[in-house]
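ok new one. same drill as before - structure tokens go in, u give me an amino acid for every spot. 241 of them this time. try not to just spam alanines like last time pls lmao
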């Protein structure tokens, strides 16, 4: 793990990586982006770091320990007890996908004891990383999956994909192109029905196309095409400008 952070501040041109057409809701262009990127010891590669945490970590923080983040045929790292990971990925791809394999060990904070059985996909977006935003992904234990879907009035479908979106900045409504069940969001510390929050979840997403698009009105970074896979949670981090 790198022991020191090197901060690079660069003013980027307006909306070079914004979602939509680069315009704010009022029609004006996006504000210049300040890039605060720490490449540490990755050399000509890109440093990808962040956290992988429990579903209800807003109410009580809980990292997911020993989850494997792996680029197919490439870099890998296993999460620390606090859920943090840190690895070097391609600096040429606009988007790098990593497989997430959770540990079979029970969660550090679940009552009753339960494990994270759903594998995941992490979307490492070069523009989001370049904006200095840390990735934040989540998983849900088998026991919590039952109560969460019941409280949302949804029946979990293992033949569908699940999509989790972490939002940095001021939350605005998110949309997902693929068919899905009613979205859930965290505005403060608890999940409730909604499509705007600092965490947004799209349950039971039709994965037949293999991809879909996530969008947000106004300026955003990290929106656009994302992968889908049946029985997996796609984890995306978006910056709302």
């Amino acid at each position: 793990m790198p022991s020191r952070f090197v901060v690079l501040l660069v003013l980027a041109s307006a909306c070079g990586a914004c979602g939509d057409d680069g315009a704010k809701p009022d029609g004006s262009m996006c504000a210049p982006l300040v890039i605060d990127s720490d490449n540490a010891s990755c050399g000509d590669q890109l440093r990808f770091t962040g956290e992988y945490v429990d579903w209800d970590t807003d109410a009580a923080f809980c990292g997911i320990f020993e989850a494997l983040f792996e680029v197919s045929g490439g870099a890998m790292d296993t999460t620390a007890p606090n859920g943090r990971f840190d690895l070097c990925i391609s600096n040429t791809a606009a988007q790098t996908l990593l497989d997430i394999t959770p540990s079979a060990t029970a969660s550090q904070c679940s009552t009753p004891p339960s494990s994270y059985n759903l594998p995941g996909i992490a979307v490492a977006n070069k523009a989001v990383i370049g904006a200095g935003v840390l990735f934040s992904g989540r998983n849900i234990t088998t026991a919590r999956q039952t109560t969460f879907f019941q409280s949302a009035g949804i029946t979990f479908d293992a033949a569908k994909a699940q999509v989790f979106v972490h939002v940095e900045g001021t939350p605005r409504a998110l949309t997902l192109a693929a068919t899905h069940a009613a979205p859930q969001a965290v505005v403060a510390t608890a999940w409730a029905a909604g499509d705007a929050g600092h965490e947004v979840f799209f349950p039971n997403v039709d994965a037949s196309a293999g991809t879909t698009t996530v969008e947000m009105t106004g300026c955003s970074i990290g929106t656009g095409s994302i992968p889908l896979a049946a029985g997996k949670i796609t984890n995306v981090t978006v910056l709302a400008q």
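The longest helix spans residues 142-151. and btw Confidence is low (pLDDT under 50) at residues 1-17, 19-28.
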